[in-house]
Amino acid sequence: MSDCLFCNIVGKKIPAKIVYEDEQVVAFDDIHPQAPVHTLVIPKKHMVAIQDCVESDQALLGHLLLACSKVVKVKGLSESGSRIVVNTGRDGGQTVFHVHLHVMGGRQMGWPPG
Ligand code: 5GP
Ligand code: ZN
Predict the structure, then answer these.
(1) What domains does the chain contain, in order, with CATH numbers?
(2) Most CB contacts within 10 A, which of 20, 39, 50, 63?
């Protein structure tokens, strides 16, 4: 989608600090990090939000989580821990409507989240 920010990052029309990439997903550092490590993992395919996903998206959704696991290792968070978050819809605080998982770490996270 040409008017989607994250599709434009996938298409390299908007620059981003790429952490990991394969044929299905790309991971890049968040422009406004909320923790020492804050990386976004997105599908290359445009998907609006988790609740719109269907059975045929199952493998890609699993692939996204495995990509998060790779980011955790690349960023050196395996031992210290991390938080993987998907903000969804208005109340969830989603602001970019292309599915993305936040991988955050490098500090102690609070619970419950705000
Ligand atoms: P959401 O609020 O939808 O869960 O998360 C969207 C995230 O995208 C935010 O953490 C925001 O900082 C990040 N973001 C917004 N615009 C850009 C951008 O142009 N580049 C990068 N790397 N991150 C962005
Ligand atoms: Zn998109």
Answers:
(1) 5-105 (3.30.428.10)
(2) 39
